[in-house]
């Protein structure tokens, strides 16, 4: 039996130490604040699990969490199928391949705060190109600062524009890795386009789609900058996602204890749902 060589871990050890240092120390600070109360001057008072109990019973927390799940669910339901369709439509060979890839990657190169600012100006009712077109050309009353439905539609469309490219590029990478022999066999058997997609392309894209769904879930579930710059959580609290509400509690109200407790609950929910996604999508591979 060949003896396993574990010396490679020595090369990874510096990275693990750096990641642990950057992750564990801030986490320990958050845990410390979540079980205490402070009024400044470095004075702390023990609270135990009171903040967690109050948060889990809070209607405000439930509403923010519900809006966060609604946003993430909408994003995944739109971006994953749309990304697959666009990837299937892209050429696999020739001059247009790099052109399409660079074009698809362009939205992801724009900083998050700039994306929110761009769409804020773009959708202004009187001077924004989209806002003016909807209001004055099509006659549709559109004002995301007054209409919650318009605000929700805007942040969803903004995220779809910004991040569908990620799903497209990952799906395209899975498609171009499929050997031509599979397509030749399907052509000989007279398989339809749907059959080719269902039995050849989709199974071969499963691994990259798992990565795409996990990345888009984690990113959309923890999104903050774009919707905050675009709507500020309004009108009212209609687009106040959990991430925005967390910042309001921590920095706006300076309630560090409840904010720390919410951060830990937020982290646990993200971790559990990501694990659930990964387990379900790799269930067949594990068998």
Structure description:
The chain has one domain (58-286): MetI-like (MetI-like fold, Orthogonal Bundle). 73% of the residues lie in helices and 2% in strands. The protein is built from 14 helices and two strands; from the N terminus they run H-E-E-H-H-H-H-H-H-H-H-H-H-H-H-H. It has helices spanning 9-34, 50-56, 59-89, 96-105, 112-122, 129-137, 148-176, 180-189, 193-204, 206-221, 225-231, 242-252, 256-281, 283-286; strands at residues 36-38, 44-46. Strand 1 (36-38) and strand 2 (44-46) form a beta hairpin. Helix 12 (242-252) packs antiparallel against helix 13. The radius of gyration is 23 Å and the shape is globular. The mean pLDDT is 89.
Which structural class matches the secondary elements?
A: mainly alpha
The oligomeric state of the chains shown is single chain
DSSP helix fraction: over 70%
Please tally the β strands and state the result: 2
Give the N-terminus to C-terminus distance in angstroms: 26 Å
SSE arrangement, N to C: HEEHHHHHHHHHHHHH
Question: Key terms for this structure?
Answer:
single chain, 287 residues, mainly alpha, two-stranded antiparallel sheet, 14 helices, 73% helix, 2% strand
